Automatic annotation (TrEMBL):
Residues 87-106 are annotated as: Disordered. It catalyses: 5-O-(1-carboxyvinyl)-3-phosphoshikimate = chorismate + phosphate. This is Chorismate synthase. The gene is aroC. Its EC number is 4.2.3.5.
Length: 410
């Protein structure tokens, strides 16, 4: 089992993440984790903070000479502005000077959190509710990705929609597409859609408004057998939906053809099972199920789409609220804000998918060292291949969003 906890406020000294359950011997460097953090800062339409935030990393525990020790890993991510701007406002000391925020923003945790925890200052809620915390998740996710790479599992995401601009749905993105996706200003594979997305973002920014959208996240190389049908909380689709839905501002998650499948006939809604006698493998020509049947991975790519609402803090604050100090009507307070964060959310979604899959992989393959973990996985997969119960996928063809050809991983 892989467990992780994050701590830290958006404008506090730093974020901290502790990851427990990684086997010993996994190669990890601050530079490698920094690459993932830099990807999360990408994306046209993010606010000023992403231009100066450095995400400076300190490897505190559990890693020695570039490899995990099997003990809990603790990592600190420093907040660049702390010393310059926030030492008083975010001081842990009693009586430090601060300005109370009493005009809670609709769409944020501000008011519900103030009422629940008995605060008279929205900052006591917003600092932790902020998506700054996703930097810590991305670091944990980078460790999970490194572990999954030992099994040949790779995860890729791309932006499908920003505002009303949508990318054309074609074949699933492959890990080799990541460089091109990250080079796009909105992490989108479709250049025409990218241009429309940027135009929409510019228009929204001009009037002080915000946008939402969606990303697709795909895990390639996942073996048959992660997750289980035996309990609700062991189902891979349920774990993925919860993990992806936990990302700030995410309002919907679908697996495979998702909501689209509901309007199809049953005869056209499921992935056929074929058998390749030459390779002694079952083949799944499509991925309508998103690579999960009955809560168990079926050997096809795991596919999820994740939808994000338009961000709730607006540069032109027009949302009505009530001043909690005076009870008078007011406009919600204005904080520095992104116009759109869908491209960054894709990188966070990759991290969340990696953490769910790594948790299930450690549950299935166990082992105290990476060598033992990989040996257990190899024994399982080789045994599958030697029997008629092997599951594989064939070469990619066709351009329908949910297949129509056979998939590239065998
Ligand atoms: C990467 C990322 C960046 C975000 N940036 C902002 C932002 O700048 N302004 C904002 O209002 N919300 C932003 N959000 C969303 C809020 O954190 C989120 O809507 C808020 O905490 C309330 O949670 P909920 O929408 O999940 O209910 C961001 C979310 C993500 C994933
Ligand atoms: C700090 C990050 O995102 C922040 C998420 C966020 C929110 O309300 O969620 C609001 C903004 O915070 P700030 O006012 O400090 O600029 C974003 O910049 C980050 O992603 O690292």
């Amino acid at each position: 089992m892989l467990r992780y906890l994050t701590a830290g406020e958006s404008h506090g000294r730093s974020l901290v993440v502790t990851v427990e359950g990684l086997p010993a011997g996994l190669e990890v460097t601050a530079q490698q984790l920094g690459v993932e953090l830099a990807r999360r800062r990408l994306g046209y339409g993010r606010g000023p903070r992403m231009r100066f935030e450095a995400d400076e990393l300190v490897l505190i525990a559990g890693i020695r000479h570039g490899r995990t020790l099997g003990s809990p890993v603790a990592i600190e991510i420093k907040n660049s502005e702390w010393e310059r701007k926030w030492t008083q406002e975010m001081s842990p000391d009693p009586g430090a000077p601060s300005t109370k925020l009493t005009k809670p923003r609709p769409g944020h945790a501000d008011l519900a959190g103030m009422l629940k925890y008995g605060f008279d200052d929205a900052r006591d809620v917003l600092e932790r509710a902020s998506a700054r915390e996703t930097a810590a998740r991305v670091v944990a996710g980078a460790l999970a990705k490194a572990l999954l790479a030992q099994l040949g599992i790779e995860i890729v995401s791309h932006v499908v929609q920003i505002g009303e601009a949508k990318a054309a749905r074609t074949n699933l993105p492959l890990p080799g597409d990541l460089a091109r996706i990250d080079a796009s200003e909105v992490r989108c594979l479709d250049p025409d859609a990218e241009a429309s997305m940027i135009a929409e973002i510019k228009a929204a920014a001009k009037v002080g408004d915000s946008l939402g959208g969606s990303v697709e996240v795909v895990a390639h190389g996942v073996p048959v057998g992660l997750g289980s049908h035996v309990h609700w909380d062991r189902k891979l689709d349920s774990q993925l939906a919860g993990a992806l839905m936990s990302i700030q501002a995410v309002k919907a998650v679908s697996i495979g053809a998702g909501i689209e499948v509901a309007s199809r006939h049953g005869s056209e809604a499921h992935d056929a099972i074929h058998y390749d006698a030459d390779r002694d493998r079952y083949l799944r020509p499509t991925w309508l199920s998103g690579g999960i049947e009955g809560g168990i991975s079926n050997g096809a790519p795991i596919v999820a789409e994740v939808w994000m609402k338009p961000l709730a803090t607006l540069n032109r604050p027009v949302l009505e609220t009530v001043d909690t100090a005076t009870k008078e009507s007011a406009l919600s307070f204005k904080e520095r804000t992104d116009v759109v964060a869908v491209p960054a959310m894709g990188v966070v979604a990759e991290a969340m998918m990696a953490l769910v899959l790594a948790n299930e992989a450690t549950r299935k393959f166990g082992g105290d060292s990476v060598a033992e973990f990989a040996r257990n996985w190899r024994g399982y997969v080789e045994n599958l291949s030697a029997t008629p119960s092997a599951v594989g996928v064939g070469p990619q063809a066709g351009s329908a969003p949910y297949g129509g050809g056979e998939l590239p991983h065998g």
